[in-house]
Amino acid sequence: PQWLAEQVLSSYKVIAVSGTHGKTTTTSMVAWILHEAGFDPGFLIGGVDRSFNTSARLGKGDWFVIEADEYDSAFFDKRPKFMHYRPEVAILNNLEFDHADIYANLAEIQKQFAYFLRTIPSHGLAIKPREDKALNEVLASGVYSSVEECSTQGRADWSAELLEESGQSFKVYYKGQAVAHIEWSLIGRFNVENALAAMAATRRAGVSPEVAARALEGFTPVKRRLEVKFNKDGLTLYDDFAHHPTAISKTIEALKKSKRHQRILAVMEFASFTMRSGVHGNAVAKAISAADSAFILEPQDFNIHSILEGSPCSYTLCKNTEEIVELILAQARKGDAILVMSNRGFNGIHGQLIQALDKVCSDH
Asked: What phi and psi, each to the nearest 5 degrees, are found at residue 14?
């Protein structure tokens, strides 16, 4: 991060995208809007961006868009990465407890976000959701730039009115005035929230909301964000990066409200350090309750069974990925969505499922 700041970012005006969830997608949206508007931005995205087919580019324009992580910079620099970036525009998508390997509690992360706010110049802009309690507490401790708030639940500087429950059609309002109407392929209220933040950031860079809206309608989601890996004979396999209870819950909700599928079969592993520690165990039980069935790779470090007992969701704890694949094949039927959630490789389960499902569909 220090090298990036000194050797790359010093030549640009920076838009930094921070928060617990949605950083990669929102960073990609901002970069795509600026690209489509002819700004030729530089960018660094923490994922495989399918719109650009690359994760990073220097660009010849004035702006550089960077995913700004709160994780520490290096073993010799324990400051969060985002402390190096000095953005003119900062998006704070949301804030929850994560990274239990370096933060003891939410308050410690909030302190770092408070420091991050102080790196934004007085002529700069911070963009945040209106309803986020943890971020509201951060801003209450001091903010030294302009602030614009976003909401899908009521009036704000930037607000959205969902015309479809799935989030595939919505109107955008700025300061109470309708400025755009978007119809796109993405689903989920969380993606509408990401879009609002991206439109707010790019407006500050000089892109009109209408131009931003047209760009977003052609936006291709980042890999591993509800990415369709298999779709045949009415069976769809999704790969999603969800690895935190809130992301798990919102992803399942988005699929349900899309009304694309009759059932949702959730497949997940406790992959990140925070999840493996069991700190989010009770929240995970609540998060998966909206799925019709759940197949969970049994964690080694805590007893998930005692937490899930009594869950309204039909769940099965599995010893390995082969067992999960076998159970999925036995239960999956036409109209099902198989939703695989992990921020790691999950022992290649995606490839195993694709191969097995393809064989079953071909045999039928």
From this structure: -105, 135
Q: Give the three-class secondary structure for 198.
A: helix
- Give the chain's largest Cα–Cα span: 64
Residue 59 to residue 61: CA distance in whole angstroms? 6
**pLDDT tens, position by position, 230-280:** 888 888 999 987 767 888 888 898 888 888 889 999 998 886 666 666 566
- What kind and span of H or E run contains 80? strand 77-80
| Across 152-175, average pLDDT | 94
Gap between the Cα atoms of 29 and 218, Å rounded: 10
Alpha carbons 103 and 72: distance in angstroms, whole number: 10
Give the residue among 80, 100, 102, 82 at the shortest CA–CA distance from 90: 82
What is the number of alpha carbons within 13 Å of residue 339 lying toward its C-beta? 32
Axis crossing angle, helix 321-331 with helix 349-363, rounded to the nearest 10: 30
Distance, in Å, from the CA atom of 339 to the CA atom of 328, rounded to the nearest integer, reads 11
Query: Structure tokens of 183?
Result: 């119809």
Residues 6+ apart with CB under 8 A from 6: none
Q: By the 8 A CB rule, do 313 and 333 touch? A: no
Query: Could you count the other beta carbons within 10 Å of the beta carbon of residue 78?
Result: 9
Give kind and range of the element (H or E) at residue 321.
Answer: helix 321-331
State whether residue 190 is helix, strand or coil.
helix
Nearest to 130, CA basis, from 107, 96, 154: 154
Q: What is the pLDDT of residues 62-94, one digit of tens each?
A: 999 999 988 888 888 888 899 999 999 999 998
